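Retro notes - structure team

What went well: the batch runner handled both jobs without manual restarts.
What didn't: labels got mixed up in the shared folder, which is why I'm recording both outputs here explicitly, each with its sequence directly above its tokens.

Job 1
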Amino acid sequence: MEMLEEHRCFEGWQQRWRHDSAVLNCTMTFSIFLPPQYSATPPPVLYWLSGLTCNDENFTTKAGAQRVAAELGIVLVMPDTSPRGDDVADADSYDLGKGAGFYLNATEQPWAAHYRMYDYLRDELPTLIQSQFKVSDRCAISGHSMGGHGALIMALKNPGRYTSVSAFAPIVNPMQVPWGQKAFRAYLGDDAQQWRKWDSCALMLESNETDAIPTLIDQGDNDQFLADQLQPARLAEVARQKTWPLTLRIQSGYDHSYFFIAAFIEDHLRFHAQHLLK
């Protein structure tokens, strides 16, 4: 691992690291915030997954999460949104390829060689964080838009791994919306049964009652993608059927931007702290 940046921040440290990923077959970067209490009792970790066109720096520089994370004693880990490098397949559009990994394991060419973000987030990155930083094994996960989709499927596919999950304006039913259909067809092929393995609504519908964890979703009602790409009410209805503890909050006037995230990130951090710090 190689440190690329380090900045003092709210008495903690904001760092950016580069490492070679065996899972993704490329060099990856991630950002991490270490709170002031880091040198004492190993703190818990909140993983943040960003959305389309983003990398590991968007949340770090725009969300304003470090102040509250420092107060609560929570480590923030921000991975990239896709594999990177000259040898990694890409597309001309913003919603496929680099910056648009969709947090799944691709099975179709030319994507399969590198686009295995799910395995990276489930196995390789947490193992790296555990080995290189003094952190607790307690963790939670959150994300925005495509990253909200990623956070939800990570939690749904790994019962017992996370204490809680939250999302801002997540893609909850990618099988049924243009962003998801385009990505799934490219990365997974045309078999819709394979798509179900990466769709939050389908995963929650098939979940066991004992798998349920506290879930918080914030959605702005002025989000330009709400009607055609996001539709969080679909997941809320599945949660109602399954008695899954999901809170969906519709925030008046807010859009899809990081101004929306910055307005409510403190709520999400305190929500996760209730479960991480038990």
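Job 2
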Amino acid sequence: MSNLADSSRSTRPTIAWIGLGIMGSPMSENLLKAGYSVTGFTLEQDKLDRLAAAGGAVASSIAEAVKDADVVITMVPASPQVEAIAYGPDGILENARSGALIIDMSSITPQTSVDLAKAAAEKGLRVLDAPVSGGEAGAIEAVLSIMVGGEQSDFDTALPILEALGKTIVLCGPHGSGQTVKAANQLIVAVNIQACAEAVVFLEKSGVNLQAALDVLNGGLAGSTVLTRKKDNFLNRDFKPGFRIDLHHKDMGIVTDAARNVGAALPVGAVVAQLVASLRTQGDGGLDHSALLRAVERLSGQQV
């Protein structure tokens, strides 16, 4: 049995994984469970230890992680970090082998993805932008929604790998398209959380049983994945981060900037972007984005 498993593993592409945070750690572990060989690199030793414990290999540098990989997957917080790991003498582009496929699953600006694809092509490397939605729970359960930008042939190559990480996987168009759809996703999620937060405060101040109210609301047109995933956060005021306000602030900057560039008005999105920004200035940046509830409570005269 083990010989069969070993031979199956050897015919699959070898994977380098850069960035083992809240999302990256469980995602890389799901690839290991699916039978892929994964070599990881990240800045925190405890995250490398976790990957090793799950059966992965660990590297001491980006160069070491990517040098023999067929596929390089990156999952880091924002555009500056993607540029830091991709470019320069110690970066992915200089050290990956020719023909390797880079799948960047970070949420960054569409332009950063377009620029990366162009720079990689000059080195004989292929790139997909493949940001995800579903948060920590979606990463753990391997049910992420993955929006992809790039060439159809590269998407076809990547699809079996992505199917070990998510459930809804769609090629949205050329390079940068995945990031554009992710920006729209973050707009919808933020506005949805804000609406839920306002409803929670309204319901509580009205003396209604919140658990009962959220249950019945979630069964009708007001129901949503956001409400399903975040209901307990609201009920218990539990804001342990699955997706931090700091990161949603970054994403709201991406979507408002990109919308301005294409001439699309985001009147409600702009207001929610300001509310997210205000939470950061009040010290709540490290909390889950369901902590938008705290902003509504403050505006409604409650101590938080």
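One thing worth noting from job 2: The two ends are 57 Å apart (CA to CA).
We'll revisit the folder naming next retro.
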